Amino acid sequence: MFSKSRPSDPVPQPKPTPEPASDLRPAAPAGSAPSAAAKPRPAASVLSSDLMVTGNIRSTGDIQVEGTVDGDVRAQTLIIGESATVKGEVVADELIVHGRVTGRLRGVKIRLSATAKVEGDVVHKTIAIESGAHFEGSVHREEDPLTKGGKPQPPRLTGPSPAKADETAG
Questions:
Q1: 81-84: long-range pairs with CB below 8 Å, 24+
Q2: Are 103 and 120 in contact (CB under 8 A)?
Q3: Using one digit for the tens of pLDDT, what is the confidence trace for 130-152?
Q4: pLDDT tens for each residue of 50-82
Q5: pLDDT at position 2, please?
Q6: What are the distances in angstroms from CA 77 to CA 63, 73, 109, 119, 132?
Q7: Are 142 and 148 in contact (CB under 8 A)?
Q8: How much is the pTM?
Q9: Disordered: where is this region (predicted)?
Q10: Nearest to residue 72, comparing CAs of 109, 135, 142, 63?
């Protein structure tokens, strides 16, 4: 009935149970191949309303700003809360502005909510500006707005027209 286990016998290991997904984003569309190293996304980093940051902030994850930032901010997804103020360039794949930004905004998908106050240029692929948003600046659409300054335009080379070249030759 009871016996000693032999050292060569494998010890039964409990099977790992899958953890519930903490990411509330929609799943990848059907037909797309799941990545081999799919990791759950960590929660967004929150800069609370009593926090003042002087300097640049860079993250490969998500950031939610509720305080004041005097510097550039770069993130995957960036939410600027109603009480937030950012003075500097803001770059994100997805950018949602509820507060105040003074500086350039660059993003693939940008949304200015009704409470947004933006003073600066916007470079985007898609943009939504809600009624009531305050915006002063220019808007430029680019296929890849995350590259600094967008795609460089080739210089235009202009030479004399054929009619003028004939006049100067004879």
A1: 81/49, 82/115, 83/49, 84/47, 84/49
A2: yes
A3: 999 999 999 999 998 888 654 44
A4: 999 999 999 999 999 999 999 999 999 999 999
A5: 57
A6: 6, 11, 10, 20, 23
A7: no
A8: 0.64
A9: 1-43, 134-170
A10: 63
